[in-house]
């Protein structure tokens, strides 16, 4: 998730929290841990426009840097609202065959990879939902929420509205609900506590415990099922801690690529229909300039290769190798599992970028990606535009 920041002459912070599962050199480990310390990436921009754009452009990354176990200081509950906050939906996804009985509103940035993950999951389940495009500069659409990152999912429940946050936790909580509809979302979220802690730099951070775990109301006796769930969790974590970090350095690799990327964001996100013209220009040109500079630091931070394309290709190869070992179309078999949906969602966030075309041309990701796209499209509802400029 990325969190835009607009105050003048302040540092651009791309925070991150290490997930519950720490990966070994092959990215995998079975030990469940609390989040560890993080480091912040800062950049003082040369102009007001670049500074604001930098905050907007930080959409793709959070920083991982762990040294020792952080000290937990506070546990927080998910927000429960008695009434729906005021909002203006920009899109509605309507599926007449939706039997979930859920009324959902997704607050998002269109091309945020974590928002793309949630949309991919909702579409793969054939769920109807509303979409609110959040104004990346002013963030008026989520001013009602103390939690200022996206995605935020608001679910209508008995007596009010339950707020869900963090893409991985949203997916896990909803999947838990679908597997046992006797449980209410208000109860399920208690399995994913939001914890605040202080990192080594003295900065207050938050993370969600168990975010990649789908909960069961009883033990899973089948050994094969347990191993499949473990593998699924590990690849979901890999997508957030490895794959996503290859994106920004690639899509903002050069000034030209950075500008082309933001113009695609503007087009696919419907910014011109949703936001004032001055704001669109600020996000496109200011964001492109800032992210081109930030991408260089992200490359170093995440130890990517000199040619960052190779780091992206290697990540795709690792995923496809795992799928091929299954001998099926997807990691989940004949149908995608949550890992398939997660990886697809992350990659779909750069589908219109040159980096994605290069990825298709230089790896075997294309066939799997197209199969995923077709699979999800076959279940997705109709998209209705209800654009209204703020």
Task: Please name the defining characteristics of this protein.
prostaglandin biosynthesis, 390 residues, seven-stranded mixed sheet, Prostaglandin E synthase 2, Glutathione S-transferase Yfyf (Class Pi), Chain A, domain 2, 13 helices, 10 strands, fatty acid biosynthesis, transmembrane, three-stranded antiparallel sheet, alpha+beta
Secondary structure layout:
Layout: H1 48-57, E1 71-76, E2 80-81, E3 91-94, E4 104-108, H2 113-124, E5 129-133, E6 152-157, E7 160-165, H3 167-179, H4 185-188, E8 194-198, E9 204-208, H5 223-241, H6 247-251, H7 255-268, H8 271-274, H9 277-301, H10 308-326, H11 338-348, H12 354-362, H13 365-377, E10 382-385
Helix pairs in contact: 1-9, 2-3, 2-11, 5-11, 7-9, 10-12
Brief description of this entry?
With 390 residues, the chain is α+β, with helices and mostly antiparallel strands.
If you average the pLDDT, what whole number results?
A: 82
> N-to-C terminal Cα separation, in Å?
23 Å
User: What is the element string, with H for helices and E for strands?
Assistant: HEEEEHEEEHHEEHHHHHHHHHE
CATH topology: Glutathione S-transferase Yfyf (Class Pi), Chain A, domain 2
What's the number of domains? 1
Structural class: alpha+beta
Poorly predicted segments:
1-76
Radius of gyration: 20 Å
Strand arrangement, largest sheet?
2-7-6-4-5-3-10
State the name of the first-level CATH class: Mainly Alpha
Number of DSSP strands? 10
Outline, from the CA principal axes? globular
Approximately how much helix is present in the residues? 40-55%
CATH architect. name? Up-down Bundle
Number of helices: 13
What kind of sheet is the major sheet?
Answer: 7 strands, mixed
Catalytic activity: prostaglandin H2 = (12S)-hydroxy-(5Z,8E,10E)-heptadecatrienoate + malonaldehyde; prostaglandin H2 = prostaglandin E2
Keywords: Fatty acid biosynthesis, Fatty acid metabolism, Isomerase, Lipid biosynthesis, Lipid metabolism, Membrane, Prostaglandin biosynthesis, Prostaglandin metabolism, Transmembrane, Transmembrane helix
GO cellular component, one term: endomembrane system
GO molecular function: prostaglandin-E synthase activity
